[in-house]
Design a protein that fits this description.
By secondary structure, the chain is α/β, with parallel strands linked by helices. It has two domains: about 1-120 and about 300-315, Nucleotidyltransferase, domain 5, CATH 3.30.420.40; about 130-295, ATPase, nucleotide binding domain (Nucleotidyltransferase, domain 5, 2-Layer Sandwich), CATH 3.30.420.40. It has helices spanning about 35, 45-65, 85-100, 110-115, 160-175, 180-185, 210-225, 235-260, 275-285, 305-315, and strands spanning about 1-5, 10-20, 25-30, 75-80, 105-110, 130-135, 140-145, 150-155, 265-270, 290-295. The strands form two sheets. A five-stranded mixed β-sheet has the order 3-2-1-4-5, with helices on both faces. It has a five-stranded mixed β-sheet with strand order 8-7-6-9-10, sandwiched between helices. The two termini are about 35 Å apart.
């Protein structure tokens, strides 16, 4: 079964063709990063306008790269939530038009579930159940992936996501947008032990995350240093920040896996491209006898191949939509958070 996936939740307009949820036939991404760089972050209105301009040529190229016509596509999958509402509406409206015009099934895909599916595209042996660590600019969560379309959240961020913390701190350090990659590069030159950063202890669910305090600490440190006319070593600060985030993510994910009895962890999301996160989690998993799956860098960020992959499994589970499908700026995964340690 060949699924056309469409993704437009933030500042990438993407389309892809994926066969049977596992084999990429094409994967096209039109990035707006260079345009948003001058503003220091994504401008929602500008992103929406660029999606309107890019979506038709991107979908045409995805079909051409796969050597297919729309008639040969079996269904259309689209990200409908969560994300920037104007950006999402472009993709959802376009996908609805394609599906209604061609008579193809329309499959709604949750963006976070799409990130989890990125690993299916490169690891054919990976099958549920397993523990997912899904980390991006807008979302940070640990979730039991009980089946391809059944998720149960173990812990999630209560405020800022890890990716947002990276990006906001990067901006304060003077790095251009997107900041995460520049923090990663600087961290490889720096000394993580040069700064002692705070780690937030969570009341209630120990697997929840909070990165707003870390972000505020870094921003205030930089502002106070500048006000005194002093300087600090940005490479060292970047290394300390990356180390703190990587250790927080790793410690909670491994502890959750051990408590819940999982021997497999799958990392995904934009932050899964971070070298510190990848290496720290890999070392901890090896030490604890846990198999780790993580996508290649090209599939860590927003892309439509992951949406098409998850769309395939949604379709098999009977999850489809009609012309009433709407975009949603926020939407929980199927299976709301449960209290840590409670029965499955």
């Amino acid at each position: 079964m060949r699924i056309l996936g469409i993704e437009s939740s933030c500042d990438e307009t993407a389309a892809a063709i994926v066969e049977d949820g596992r084999r990429i036939l094409s994967n096209v991404i039109a990035s707006q990063a260079d345009e948003h760089k001058q503003y220091g972050g994504v401008v929602p209105e500008l992103a929406s306008r660029r999606h309107c301009e890019n979506i038709l040529p991107v979908v045409k190229k995805a079909l051409a790269d796969a050597g297919m016509t729309l008639d040969e596509v079996d269904a259309v999958a689209v990200t409908y939530a969560p994300g920037l509402i104007g950006a999402l509406l472009v993709g959802v409206s376009f996908a609805k038009g394609l599906a209604m015009m061609s008579g193809k099934p329309l499959i709604p895909v949750h963006h976070t579930e799409g990130h989890a599916a990125a690993n299916y595209l490169v690891h054919p042996e990976l099958k549920p159940p397993y523990l997912g660590l899904i980390v991006s600019g807008g979302h940070t969560r640990i979730a039991e992936v009980l089946d391809y379309t059944e998720f149960r959240t173990v812990g999630k961020t209560r405020d800022d996501a890890a990716g947002e913390c990276f990006d906001k701190c990067a901006r304060a350090m003077g790095f251009p947008y997107p900041g995460g990659v520049h923090v990663d590069q600087a961290a490889q030159r720096g000394n993580a032990s040069a700064f002692k950063l705070p780690r937030i202890k969570m009341d209630g669910n120990p697997y929840d995350f909070s990165f707003s305090g870390l972000k505020t600490y870094i921003v205030n440190l930089l502002h106070n240093t500048a006000q005194k006319g002093e300087t600090l070593n940005t490479d060292d600060l970047a290394a300390a920040l990356q180390h703190e985030i990587a250790c927080t993510l790793t410690d909670k994910a491994v502890a959750a896996a051990k408590e819940l009895g999982y021997k497999v962890i799958a990392l995904s999301g934009g932050v899964s491209a971070n070298s510190g996160v990848r290496s720290t989690l890999a070392a901890a998993c090896e030490q604890n006898g846990i198999t780790l799956y993580q996508p290649p860098i090209a599939l860590c960020g927003d892309n439509a191949a992951m949406i098409a992959s998850q769309g395939y499994y949604n379709y098999l589970a009977g999850i489809t939509a009609d012309e009433s499908l709407n975009a949603l700026a926020s939407k929980e995964l199927r299976g709301e958070s449960r209290k840590a340690g409670s029965p499955a």
